[in-house]
Structures are given as structure tokens and as C-alpha cells.
Design brief:
Shape: globular
Number of helices: 9
Largest sheet: 9 strands, mixed
CATH class: Alpha Beta
Helix content: 25-40%
Distance between the termini: 24 Å
CATH superfamily: Ribokinase
Oligomer: single chain
Number of domains: 1
CATH topology: UDP-N-acetylmuramoyl-L-alanine:D-glutamate ligase
CATH architecture: 3-Layer(aba) Sandwich
Structural class: alpha/beta
Strand content: 25-35%
Radius of gyration: 17 Å
Strand order of the largest sheet: 3-2-1-4-5-8-9-10-11
């Protein structure tokens, strides 16, 4: 039987992240992918502009999904408002499969101004439904109401533990290169307080646009196939690393590039 997955995310015209990265990742896993679009993201070198989908259009997309018999896993990406979070909550609250929430609150091209009501809606409504949430450091400290970045592994672990307890879900904290210069450090804290630290040697590359979306999508894919959370996290992290290693540039005018989830299919076509 074909596995079916859903992404609820923004659209990125440059395909670095958002639903484009999600769909590309799902395609590499042989999954049938469906989507609900929350917004249009206009990505510029030093700024991000988000144009939300109007509330009625957002809601009717969920109504159309009633024609699909089931989803084996669901990923939630960028949501722009409390209203979008509420609509998503009502869709998900009766769903029993794996849910991965990537709480997109910041971009490397520029920070988003986050309404405190959105943080509360995530914490009180959406995250308690999640199997696992995948914030980066900036998103985690915003959700945890902290005002400083952790600079040590123990501080990152404490942040993940605090956020997991508050959000009532497992936390995959994408700590990245800010903890150890030569290693990528991610922290997985499950709801029972079990800790795993996922460490890889740093890939020195500017081709990491969409890395967070790709990791969350890969994690969603592995959970759809029934992997345990730790194994799914390990495999998603390695998949994302390979996507960064094989990143492609947009043009000679830009020094950065996009993670390429499809590199393996292109290499072996």
C-alpha cells in the first residue's frame, strides 16, 4: 500500500525550504505527498516577506483533504497566525498518527516578529498534539521565553528538557554549529525525559538553505514508515547532511545554495 503524508507549510519560490523542500524529500522516499499552503514566502538575500493565505482559503484546503482516506504521518511547518494554528489544531486533534511540528519562527535571512499570542497557541494547542517538534535554537528560546542562546551542550540539553516539559511533546533541538565549532550538535529529548545527543562533523558549506525543513520532512517520512523516534531522528539527520553535501547554487551572483534532497535519485537515474 502506498504511504501517504501531508505537509502544512508555506511556499518558497526559491525552493530552499517550505513545502517545496518537503515534497522533494517525500518524493525521495517513495511517499505520496499532499499539501496545505499557509503562505507565500518571498525570499531575498537579506530579508523574508510572508504573505499569508486568507483564512477561508486556508480552511477549505483542509476540507478538501476529507477525500483522502488516511495519512501515515503529518508535518506542520510555517503557520502565520493564531487563526491558522487553531484551524490546524482542529484538523489534527482527532488524528492518531505521527505529527512533526517544525515551529518556523525565524529565518537565517532575517528574524520574524513573533506575536506572543502565537507562541502561546503553539505551546497550549499545537505542540501537545505533536509526536515531536523540531525548533532551532532561536525558535526554542522564544518558545521557552528565554533571552539568551545556550553556548554549551549542557545548556542545550537543559533548554530541550524545559521545552519538552512545557510543550508536552518530544523535542528535536537543532542546535547546529553554535555549540561545538567542528561538530553539528542536535539534542533529542522525548516526553519521558530520555536524552539523545546526535553529533556529526560539521560540513563547511553555504548550501544549507532549507536544512531545517528537509530534516523535519525526512523525520516525518521515517515515522510514516514506522521507525522509532530515535532511529528516525538519526536517519533524518544523516539524510539532511547528505543534502547539504550535495547542495546546488542558485546562481553565480549568490554565495549560498539550497539543500538538495533529490541528489541520490539524480545520481542513480
Amino acid at each position: 500500500m502506498v504511504k501517504k503524508v501531508l505537509t502544512i507549510a508555506g511556499s518558497d519560490s526559491l525552493s530552499g525550504g517550505g513545502l517545496q523542500a518537503d515534497l522533494a524529500t517525500f518524493a525521495t522516499k517513495g511517499l505520496a505527498a499532499f499539501s496545505v499552503i499557509s503562505s507565500i514566502a518571498i525570499i531575498q538575500e537579506n530579508a523574508v516577506t510572508i504573505q499569508p493565505v486568507d483564512d477561508q482559503t486556508f480552511a477549505t484546503q483542509f476540507e478538501s483533504l476529507e477525500q483522502v482516506d488516511h495519512f501515515d504521518a503529518i508535518k506542520v511547518g510555517l503557520l502565520c497566525s493564531v487563526e491558522q494554528i487553531e484551524t490546524t489544531y482542529h484538523f489534527l486533534k482527532g488524528y492518531l498518527g505521527p505529527i512533526v511540528v517544525d515551529p518556523v519562527l525565524s529565518f537565517k535571512e532575517g528574524e520574524l516578529a513573533v506575536d506572543p499570542e502565537i507562541l502561546t497557541a503553539y505551546l497550549d494547542r499545537l505542540l501537545p498534539l505533536a509526536t515531536v517538534a523540531t525548533p532551532n535554537l532561536n525558535e526554542a528560546i522564544a518558545l521557552a521565553h528565554q533571552n539568551y542562546l545556550p553556548r554549551t551542550k549542557s545548556a542545550a540539553v537543559a533548554l530541550a528538557k524545559q521545552l519538552s516539559a512545557r510543550a508536552r511533546c518530544a523535542i528535536y533541538l537543532k542546535a547546529g554549529q553554535q555549540i561545538l565549532a567542528d561538530h553539528q550538535i542536535d539534542v533529542l529529548m522525548d516526553e519521558d525525559g530520555h536524552l539523545s545527543v546526535i553529533r556529526h562533523e560539521t560540513i563547511h558549506s553555504d548550501g544549507n538553505n532549507g536544512a531545517g525543513c528537509t530534516l523535519a520532512a525526512a523525520l516525518t517520512a521515517r515515522l510514516a514508515f514506522g521507525d522509532e523516534l530515535y532511529d528516525a531522528a538519526q536517519r533524518a539527520a544523516e539524510f539532511t547532511r547528505q543534502g547539504i553535501r550535495h547542495a546546488y547554487s542558485l546562481s553565480d551572483k549568490r554565495s549560498d545554495g539550497n539543500v538538495w534532497p533529490n541528489w541520490y535519485l539524480a545520481k542513480n537515474k
